[in-house]
Amino acid sequence: MPATPRRTRSDALQNRERLLEVAARVFGEQGLDTAPAAIAKQAGVGVGTLYRHFPTREVLIDAAYRRQLTHVCEKVNDLVTRHPAAEATRRWMAHFIRYATAKSGMSEALNAVIASGIDPYSDSRALLTDAVATLLAAGARDGSLRTDVTPDTVLLLMGGIAYSVQHGSEEQARPLVDLFMDMLTKGPS
Questions:
Q1: pLDDT digit string (tens) for 149-165?
Q2: Other CB atoms within 10 Å distance of the CB of residue 58
Q3: How far is CA 155 from CA 134, 149, 166, in A?
Q4: Fewer CB atoms < 10 Å away: N or C end of the chain?
Q5: What mean pLDDT value characterizes the chain?
């Protein structure tokens, strides 16, 4: 008879979530030099608990990055149900830019993850593509967004906007987002 898979205890799941939340904040603010013991202490768990969930620093960084990006992408469905597609897109892009500018400190961490052989972008690209495809489909349904723009095009332009303000502020991104939204709603002049 095959063994029944073990269920993760609820306190273990809570510890994991707390570790991810603290790690994302600390890596974003302080970079990779933060000791795992400091992350565990701020999360209110022991170092052994941290390593039980995340055997290496790179695995922890990757998991923290994916968790935050998942939260950003999950906002799309709520925005699309509460706003017309063009407004939902503008709001989501502003949220994405806030995320990207706040997480600019994680770029060093993500480079270390990539060097370790983990690809933090493989699932991330799919998450972002699905989020943008949802926005574009809503725009096609209500007629507020162009139908000749692909999710890849939107992601390339969003990436450019995020990169250009990586060490700046959301305020610096606003005119670029406005210009992009004009193109996405009206098309080229």
A1: 999 999 888 888 887 87
A2: 20
A3: 13, 11, 16
A4: N
A5: 85
Question: How many residues make up the chain in this entry?
Answer: 189
Q: Write the CATH number of the domain with boundaries 57-186.
A: 1.10.357.10
State the alpha helices, DSSP H only, in the chain.
10-30, 36-43, 47-53, 57-82, 85-102, 106-115, 122-142, 151-164, 170-186
Q: Tokens for 21?
A: 């939340």
C-alpha 53/C-alpha 23 separation (Å) is 12
Rounded distance between C-alpha atoms, residue 41 and residue 120, angstroms: 26
- Spatial separation of the C-alpha atoms in residues 80 and 164, rounded to whole Å: 27
Tokens standing for residue 75 = 């906002």
- Enumerate the domain spans of the chain: 10-55, 57-186
Q: pLDDT value at position 79?
A: 98
Q: Of the candidates 72, 64, 142, 150, which has an alpha carbon nearest to the alpha carbon of residue 109?
A: 64
* Architecture of the 10-55 domain: Orthogonal Bundle (1.10)
Task: HSE, CB side, 13 Å, CA atoms: give it for residue 21.
Answer: 11
